[in-house]
Design brief:
This protein has 157 residues and is of the alpha/beta class. The protein contains five helices and five strands, in the order H-E-E-E-H-E-H-H-E-H. Strands 3-2-1-4-5 form a five-stranded mixed sheet, sandwiched between helices. Helix 2 runs parallel beside helix 4.
Length: 157
C-alpha cells in the first residue's frame, strides 16, 4: 500500500460522511487550499453553493510550489473568480483557515507576500455587492477539501 493510499484510508476513518452543502439564503463559497509539504506542491479548490444548498460549480487547480497559508488565500481568489463567473452575489465565503478569515476581516498578515494576496482578494471582492467572510470547521469543508486532495494525492483519491 502506498503512502497516499494509507493517508486516504486514515482520513476516511476519521471523517465518515460529508455534511450536506449549506443552505444559507445567499450564495456560499467553500474554499480550501493545501500543500504536500510546507512549502511543497500546492493546490486550491472552491465549491460554489446556491442559496438553496445546490452545487452551482467548482474549480480546483495545482498552483505550483507554495505553503499551506498561500494555498488557502489562492483558494479564496479562485473561488471569487468562480462566483463572479456565475453571477453569485451577495456572497458568503467560508474557509477552514482561521488565519485567512482573520486577515480578510482586517488583521493584516505580517508576511508581505500574504498581505499582497489579501489585497488582491479584497480587490476581487469589491466586484460584489456584499461579501461575508466566515470561518467554519474543517469537517464542514469536505466538498472543497476533496477537490484539493484529488489533485495532491490522485492515487489515493
Amino acid at each position: 500500500m502506498r503512502d497516499g493510499e494509507r493517508r486516504q484510508l486514515a482520513r476516511a476513518s476519521r471523517h465518515p460522511a460529508a455534511p450536506p452543502l449549506p443552505a444559507t439564503g445567499r450564495a456560499c463559497l467553500l474554499c480550501d487550499g493545501g500543500s504536500r509539504g510546507n512549502p511543497g506542491t500546492a493546490a486550491a479548490g472552491a465549491v460554489l453553493v446556491g442559496p438553496d444548498g445546490a452545487r452551482l460549480g467548482e474549480r480546483a487547480e495545482l498552483i505550483g510550489r507554495a505553503g499551506a497559508a498561500e494555498a488557502e488565500y489562492r483558494a479564496i481568489l479562485l473561488g471569487l473568480a468562480l462566483a463572479a463567473a456565475h453571477g453569485a452575489d451577495p456572497l458568503e465565503v467560508r474557509s477552514d483557515s482561521r488565519l485567512a478569515v482573520a486577515a480578510l476581516r482586517g488583521a493584516t498578515p505580517g508576511d508581505a507576500a500574504l498581505a499582497a494576496l489579501v489585497a488582491e482578494i479584497h480587490a476581487a471582492a469589491a466586484g460584489f455587492t456584499g461579501v461575508r467572510w466566515r470561518w467554519h470547521p474543517r469537517r464542514e469543508n469536505e466538498a472543497a477539501d476533496a477537490l484539493v486532495r484529488a489533485l495532491l494525492w490522485p492515487e489515493g483519491h
